[in-house]
Structure to design on (122 residues):
């Protein structure tokens, strides 16, 4: 399995980032493509608009948000989970990028945990 980490897309690119993968549905406002330095953008892998709006980055809703988002990842309706797993098989390290201000309650945290729980698939 690739070495995985998460960080805000607004942070500068680092030597140990590996493949830089944006996992938000919306492009981060005010971030240039040069600064983002993306290798991949899996926008369909992000929570649905409905789930994202319901959650609203409310820490009290994070547990239910996590459960619902993990269920969506299990179903992989967009096929992007399979694509992400292929990317992770091909790289030694990867950084999942997100734009939320809350570093503990966001979709990248959930996705990282889900990937670690399903590491046998890649």
């Amino acid at each position: 399995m690739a070495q995985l980490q998460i960080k805000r897309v607004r942070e500068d690119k680092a030597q140990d980032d590996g493949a830089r993968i944006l996992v938000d549905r919306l492009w981060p406002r005010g971030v240039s493509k040069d600064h983002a330095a993306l290798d991949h953008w899996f926008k369909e892998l992000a929570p649905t608009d409905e789930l994202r709006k319901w959650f609203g980055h409310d820490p009290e809703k994070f547990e239910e948000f996590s459960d619902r988002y993990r269920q969506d990842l299990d179903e992989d309706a967009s096929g992007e989970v399979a694509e992400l797993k292929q990317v992770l098989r091909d790289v030694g390290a990867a950084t999942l990028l997100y734009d939320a201000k809350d570093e503990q309650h966001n979709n990248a945290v959930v996705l990282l945990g889900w990937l670690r729980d399903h590491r046998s698939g890649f």
Notes: The chain has five helices and four strands.
